[in-house]
Design brief:
The chain has about 230 residues and is an alpha/beta fold. The protein has helices spanning about 45-55, 75-85, 105-115, 120-130, 145-160, 175-190, 205; strands at about 5-15, 20-30, 35-40, 60-65, 70, 90, 165-170, 195-200, 210-215, 220-225. The strands form two sheets. A six-stranded mixed beta sheet has the order 6-7-8-3-9-10, sandwiched between helices. The chain has a four-stranded antiparallel beta sheet with strand order 2-1-4-5, covered by helices on one side. The structure holds adenosine-5'-triphosphate and magnesium ion (MG). Magnesium ion binds near residues 47, 48 and 169.
Length: about 230
Amino acid sequence: MSDVIQIKNIKRDFQLGQETVKVLKGIDLNIRKGDYVALMGPSGSGKSTLMNLLGCLDTPTSGSYILSGKDVSQLSDDELAEIRNKEIGFVFQTFNLLPRTTALDNVALPMIYAGKSKKDRDARATEVLKNVGLGDRMDHKPNQLSGGQRQRVAVGRALVNKPSIILADEPTGNLDSKTSVEIMNLFNEIHAAGNTVILVTHEEEIAEHAHRVIRLRDGMIESDQRNR
Ligand SMILES: Nc1ncnc2c1ncn2[C@@H]1O[C@H](COP(=O)(O)OP(=O)(O)OP(=O)(O)O)[C@@H](O)[C@H]1O
Ligand SMILES: [Mg+2]
């Protein structure tokens, strides 16, 4: 049983005034440790909603979610935050870095919540920034970095606590094609190092990096194909 993610009949409704919007309509999904998955589908099909559930940023209306052997579908916000910090690295389309904070401190941030000392935090953040190719940009703030460099900082932040899964929601959505390739090479390396990687993309060329492509349509899995 090396499935790091086991999802059974997950539904997610949103309440909008009197109306119930059914967004995820019964998703079954198993993802094994070390897999490299691209999640695709039209705008509004539920990709981000599903990623937020996978990343423990949200809980389902019904259905079960077993993450690394633990049922996380009905946990409190505090319990979810703890799991998130330990198990999940999240990368967003818009980077979501703290603007007045150096690359080093942005990357070190999740280790504060993990209770690491300043010395350990700085040492680990330095190591991670070197790994993502930013050893010479550690003291730069986000507005002193290019888009691709900002996303590298965000990837470094996602990796810093050595999570079991890296989730990325359109990580190249705000980058030009050359920079997108660089970021995808970084995800390829992260996957090759043994991490489980799940990313959302609209672009077939980006999805080709993954080993498995899952397509959502209207809140359901339309297809699930393995290329490697
Ligand atoms: N908090 C919410 N309240 C009400 N409806 C929501 C909420 N979040 C998402 N939705 C609805 O759920 C549907 C799916 O949204 P989601 O963001 O998951 O789509 P997506 O596949 O990520 O689309 P995109 O490719 O545009 O990012 C949309 O119709 C959206 O309006
Ligand atoms: Mg989305």
